[in-house]
Amino acid sequence: MDLGTRGGGCVHNFVLDRAESLSLMHGTSYPCMMDECRESSVPEIRGAISAAWLGSCLNGFQLRPQVKQLLKNGLFYGIGGVGLFPVFRRIFAGRAAIVMFHEIQRDCRSELMTGTSVELFEYSLSWLRREGWAIVSLEECLEQLARNDRSRRYAVLTFDDGYRDNVSVALPILERNNAPFMVYVPTAALTRTLQSWWLGLRELIRSRDDITIDAMGFRFHCPDFRSKRAALTRVDQWVHQDYRRVAALATTFKKAGISMSALNNQYFLDERALQGLARHSLASIGAHTTSHAALATLDAFSARAELADNRNYLENLLQLPVQHLAYPYGTPGACGLREEHLASEAGYFSAVTTRHGQLSDHKLNQFALPRIGVSSSFDSEISFAGRMSGVQLAAHILWKKITGAAV
Ligand SMILES: [Zn+2]
Q1: The most confident of 20-29, 156-165, 242-251, by mean pLDDT
Q2: Which protein residues have their CB within 5 A of the ion that is ligand 1?
């Protein structure tokens, strides 16, 4: 999972939460987020948006992720406020979307906004129904796209990692909506051996006001919610720059007395619960590798084993075929062309990434399917509607035209 793309809440929370890092990043200059904490406001959003039009000035600059997110939210409010989402949907929304969730949390704030709130989850499903999207299984979605069925749009609901709250919180809502769904599960979550560093990090930051991450050479003073969120984001970004850093965090957790197996037991489904879930008529279980390693960092032999062993384990446990895969992390740094070949060679029928995008019936690569992540750390009702309507894609194209920069 990716803490940067997960979480729960409203745009107000997002603005307060992310305002500490409002700035433009040039080259490798990256000032410490902890030094920049400040409140944000609507005028700041306007200021950030107006900056977007200074295309020539921005040439050669890269926007920090937080600024990009703020700009996107400004766009969602602007475009949604004048009722233009249906227009964008006709042009940019494609034929289908695979929606990605992780934890569905009843109290996002206590979990430092690392999942999707139950309110946003319920809203997502009701929005899809209201706007005429058919919520279908991944198989059916791919079949309809292959058949070139243009009668309606399709949505697939996916959950990564196999959290307990997918059953205790999300399942009753899915049942009420008669919504099929897919849960991608790594073996190590079930065997309680997963290096679930994101859970360890959340526990560490939540329970302490001063923490030291030895491997980063960093100390964080985080006595309140906002500084805890900032510290969480900072360490998360550091890991995503090089997934091999996950191993280095283990020492910090051990020193702090944080037990990975206890956290795994607390948050992830166990084997029996997964067997029960797999028998549910709405559920499908997919693969997520053995150890949740970023496959691109492994040699081909190890990556092959991660793909094959996880599937064998799940098929033996569930006595069902496991045909679909989610690459751990799902970013370009974690999975690329080689991993697509390995997934195909391992006999999977499809593989999803965490790259943002909708599905159209042409140019469909079944081994690099994009998804739309829904997280309360950056999402609100209007941003969900906007991103499902293709506004983020439109903004991406427009930004590239203005600045020539990658968004
Ligand atoms: Zn995952």
Answers
A1: 156-165
A2: 1, 160-161
